[in-house]
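Input record, target 12 of the design panel.
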């Protein structure tokens, strides 16, 4: 499956991150989630929109520890912890929330 916007293929990296973050919309996030076997829920969207806002505000991506602490500060301790985030994104909360948010791959992620 190729990620498309209005039936036009979008450029992605070899790991599936959008080349141009401006191409992102909720439909693109849904396609990326399907490609990564993630069924998006309201809880996923909360984290995806959080990381998009963080990136727009600070112009960089946090490392995993800062990401978790920022979520705890903004959304509460129940959501700002590794266990909760790994339930949503088992293969890496920061990496996959950024990918689905149309953001670059965080520099601290493999």
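The sequence produced for target 12 reads:
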């Amino acid at each position: 499956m190729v990620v498309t916007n209005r039936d036009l293929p979008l450029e992605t990296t070899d790991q599936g991150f959008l080349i141009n973050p401006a191409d992102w919309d909720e439909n693109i996030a849904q396609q990326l989630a399907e490609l990564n076997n993630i069924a998006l829920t309201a809880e996923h969207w909360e984290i995806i929109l959080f990381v998009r806002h963080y990136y727009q505000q600070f112009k960089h991506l946090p490392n995993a520890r800062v990401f978790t602490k920022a979520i705890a500060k903004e959304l509460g301790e129940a959501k700002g912890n590794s266990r909760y985030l790994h339930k949503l994104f088992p293969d890496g909360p920061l990496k996959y929330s950024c990918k689905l948010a149309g953001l670059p791959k965080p520099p601290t992620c493999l």
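The mean pLDDT is 91.
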